[in-house]
Write a structure and sequence with these properties.
With about 650 residues, this protein is an alpha+beta fold. The chain has 17 helices and 20 strands. Among the domains are: about 130 residues, Succinate dehydrogenase/fumarate reductase flavoprotein, catalytic domain (Flavocytochrome C3, Chain A, domain 1, Alpha-Beta Complex); about 130 residues, Methane Monooxygenase Hydroxylase, Chain G, domain 1, CATH 1.20.58.100. Helix 3 packs parallel to helix 6, helix 5 packs across helix 12 and helix 14 packs parallel to helix 16. The longest helix has 25 residues. It binds flavin-adenine dinucleotide. Flavin-adenine dinucleotide binds next to helix 3, helix 6, strand 7, helix 7 and strand 16. The site of flavin-adenine dinucleotide has 45 residues, from helix 3, helix 6, strand 7, helix 7 and strand 16.
Length: about 650
């Protein structure tokens, strides 16, 4: 495997000069502007209508740009953002508990195990203040205290209460808010919405992104769309593991297709395994369900002290319980960050102390909270989550502890972007979970919604203008340009190719098998040996996919099996890159836990000398031979330190 590295090279972060707190202001003061009357001369394509896409599209259209939005859903409201439960962070300090922009910045850098870019993270903390005001102005019904002020609660990795929430439906309420604004623009004709249409390629002309190629999921029509700038807000790739908490149709296709066209893919091995999901019930299951981290505000995590203890929870006396998070991480307790809590749960289950019929979970117990606060208060805070749990498991979490276990949830890796959210292809942007984001090697709870809305409402509307201003009145390639024609033709052939294989196995079969390999060897714990094994098994399975895939139906009508074939193929290539990235990163950091690099207490051991960088991969035609580039991370404000939550 070739592994040519260089230092920064094309990866110029473009973080502005100045003190950390001045950088974003400096950027805005220096950036180029587009006159309001000229904005309509620029077409901007936004792919994705989740929180990042809807907020970006609504804001750019409000500013006057000519915007087109693409989603494979029937309605923008079906974007996966709607599923977000627990809350959204902001450094408002309404509680007066010591929060500030600096603290949110610090917590995020530390939470990400010192593997994120300071300039971006500080900007995120700064604009977090605006997000809450914006969403309240839109009518988002955040929870309020008795006196009418917005309520907040805690999330992992912080000792403050900075998380704003709308019961366990925060994503839903935020997306409805952003969608209303988007719908208003659609109604006014400033946004054209393309639904049930999937991006299947991006197109570059003369070194810049000239637009996209899409496939209509109802008719199969493949066509091109040209624009001055294209923004991918297409979410994360957690479904690479097959079983995950993501919506079933989340996938990596848009980002991967852009990667194949020159956009570097950063830190693909940084994936987040969330500790608070309902454990898998059997082998045929195709989806896992998240129980929000917010539950750990009041729920206490424990397992029996002794392996093999079969007694029901209520019959296990206090002295024979191990509240392992409170024991191991007294300062943060049950709200230790996700990567750390997940590994602690895995260790408990691996030691034979798992609970439930398959012994594959740990307890999340509300008995103390119900005793202290009363059932009504617990219901008020988490009612819908408790209902959901009961519907899925048939168990009443008010009467017995919930059972939880880690599951794939979020991806910190994604398309590499600079401070302006531009990928390595000029004119192509990535926002929200689709970019490699501000979360380093581990995202703190309630920070994804914050980042998606920060990117869409408060960053892109400035940075895109800076890119577009010099393009005024200069022609851009139209869809009749040969590059569009070539890409369209290739897309048609690709989908016809899936139909023509005529094998025996469905895309779902391959997805399940490939997900199992990635989960076993590139999941919560990785080793050199395991990753090598994955890197020999994945290409073999991929070859089988190319020979034995069976796609029924045709390509000219709704065909979800055909859609899935393309997405699974992209997961194959991504899976190889994830394993290569994990293999090359000879350290443990955040969600990337290499068993070889741990201390005597089983905590992650970083190697700052050699790995305090972003790994950004260049596509060469074969993910097994992608080229690894480095963006060195500079820590000017925060000192690199051992991450401790004890
Ligand atoms: C169960 C669950 C609960 C969560 N709870 C929280 C929480 O409480 N707080 C928090 O901060 N974060 C939470 N997260 C994370 C957060 O929800 C996501 O990171 C965030 O919503 C992603 O938003 P997005 O706009 O980037 O992408 P998404 O909401 O995933 O939207 C992606 C959009 O892209 C479109 N798309 C994708 N590919 C294509 C293509 N090829 N062609 C056309 N369209 C395409 C889709 O149709 C969709 O419109 C949670 C995640 C899960 C799984």
């Amino acid at each position: 495997m070739s592994n040519t590295s260089d230092s920064n090279g094309p990866l110029q972060s473009k973080v502005p000069a100045g003190a950390i707190g001045d950088k974003w202001d400096n950027y805005k003061a220096d950036m180029k502007l587009v006159n309001p009357n000229n904005k309509r001369k620029f077409k901007v394509i936004i792919v994705g209508s989740g929180l990042a896409g809807a907020s970006a599209a609504a804001t750019l259209a409000e500013l006057g740009y000519d915007v087109e939005v693409f989603t494979f859903h029937d309605s923008p409201r079906r974007a996966h953002s709607i599923a977000a439960q627990g809350g959204i962070n902001a450094a408002k300090n309404y509680r007066g508990d010591g929060d500030s922009v600096h603290r949110l910045f610090y917590d995020t850098i530390k939470g990400g195990d010192f593997r994120s870019r300071e300039g971006n993270v500080h900007r995120l903390a700064q604009v977090s203040l605006n997000i809450i005001d914006q969403m309240v102005a839109q009518g988002v019904p955040f929870a309020r205290e008795y006196g009418g002020l917005l309520d907040t609660r805690s999330f992992g990795g912080s000792q403050l209460q900075r998380t704003f929430y709308a019961r366990g439906q925060t994503g839903q309420q935020l997306l409805l808010g952003a969608y209303q604004q988007l719908a208003r623009q659609i109604g006014m004709g400033t946004v054209k919405l393309w639904n049930r249409v999937e991006l299947v390629d991006t197109v570059n002309v003369d070194g810049r992104c000239a637009g996209i190629v899409t496939r209509d999921l109802v008719t199969g029509e493949v066509r091109s769309h040209a624009a001055h700038a294209t923004v991918l807000c297409t979410g994360g790739y957690g479904n690479a593991f097959f079983l995950s908490t993501n919506a079933m149709n989340c996938n990596v296709t848009a980002a991967w297709r852009a990667h194949r066209k020159g956009a570097y893919f950063a830190n693909p091995c940084y994936t987040q395994i969330h500790p608070t999901c309902i454990p898998q019930a059997d082998d045929t299951q195709s989806k896992l369900t998240l129980m929000s981290e917010s539950l750990r505000n009041d729920g206490r995590v424990w397992v029996p002290l002794n392996a093999g203890d079969e007694r029901p929870a209520a019959q296990i006396p206090e002295a024979e319980r191990d509240y392992y998070l409170e024991r191991l991480y007294p300062s943060f307790g049950n709200l230790a960050p996700r990567d750390i809590s997940s590994r602690a749960a895995k260790r408990s289950v691996d030691s034979g102390r798992g609970v439930g019929p398959l012994k594959n979970g740990v307890n999340l117990d509300f008995a103390d909270a119900i005793h202290r606060l009363g059932k009504d208060v617990v219901k008020e805070r988490y009612g819908n989550l408790f209902e959901m749990y009961e519907r899925i498991t048939g168990e009443d979490p008010y009467a017995e502890p919930m059972r939880i276990y880690p599951a794939s949830h979020y991806t910190m890796g994604g398309l590499w972007v600079d401070y302006e959210l531009t990928t390595t292809v000029p004119g192509l942007y990535a926002a929200g979970e689709a970019n490699f984001s501000d979360h380093g090697a581990n995202r703190l709870g309630a920070s994804a919604l914050m980042q998606g809305l920060a990117d869409g409402y408060f960053v892109l509307p400035y940075t895109i203008g800076n890119y577009l201003a010099p393009m005024l009145n200069k022609p851009i390639p139209g869809v009749d340009h040969p590059e569009f024609q070539i890409a369209e033709q290739a897309a048609r052939q690709r989908f016809q190719g899936f139909l023509d294989i005529g094998g025996t196995r469905s895309p779902d079969y391959f997805h399940r098998e490939l997900g199992k390999i990635i989960w076993d060897y590139c999941g919560m714990e990785r080793t050199e040996q395991g990753l090598q094994k994955a890197l020999s098994e994945l290409p073999a399975l991929y070859d089988e996919f190319k020979k034995d895939l069976r796609v029924t139906g045709d390509g000219a009508s709704v065909n979800q099996t055909l859609e899935k074939a393309g997405r699974v193929e992209d997961f194959f290539e991504l899976g190889m890159l994830m394993c290569r990235d994990a293999l090359e990163r000879n350290e443990s950091c955040g969600g990337h836990f290499r068993a070889e690099y741990q201390d005597e207490e089983g905590e992650a051991v970083r190697n700052d000398e050699e790995f305090a960088h972003v790994a950004a991969w260049e596509f060469t035609g074969d993910p097994m031979h992608a080229i690894r580039h480095k963006e060195e991370l500079e820590f000017e404000t925060i000192h690199l330190a051992k991450r401790s939550y004890k």
